[in-house]
Design goal:
This protein is mainly alpha-helical and 108 residues long. It is 79% helix and 0% strand. It has six helices and no strands. α2 packs antiparallel against α3 and α4 runs parallel beside α6. The mean pLDDT is 96.
Length: 108
């Protein structure tokens, strides 16, 4: 486990919980091949900040890696809505591509 991750987990243990902290932990968990834990942190990031389009995008990826393709599709649908509402066109396009890929693969 990286020192950065240990530091972030210590912050969380001290009650310093917020969307950015959860997003960062989720990203580090994905990098460490721990997708189930990444899903937990990223889902919490979207609860803490429902308009965090990057968290929705990464949550979809984590769910795919955790074997929850239907959950990934749902995360990307919500993320696309958020990104479009906020004018984050690049994130909306990326999530739309990911969504089409899983829909075409028939893994819904």
């Amino acid at each position: 486990m990286s020192q950065v991750r240990r530091n972030l987990e210590a912050m969380l243990a001290r009650g310093q919980d917020n969307a950015l902290l959860r997003f960062s932990l989720g990203n580090l968990c994905l990098q460490a091949d721990e997708p189930a834990l990444a899903v937990e942190h990223l889902a919490e990031a979207t609860v803490r900040d429902p308009d965090y389009s990057a968290a929705w995008k990464l949550l979809g990826k984590a769910r795919v890696e955790a074997g929850d393709v239907a959950g990934a599709a749902q995360a990307w649908r919500q993320g696309i809505e958020v990104a479009e509402r906020r004018g984050d066109k690049q994130a909306a396009r990326e999530m739309a591509v990911f969504l089409r890929r899983v829909e075409r693969s028939g893994q819904r």
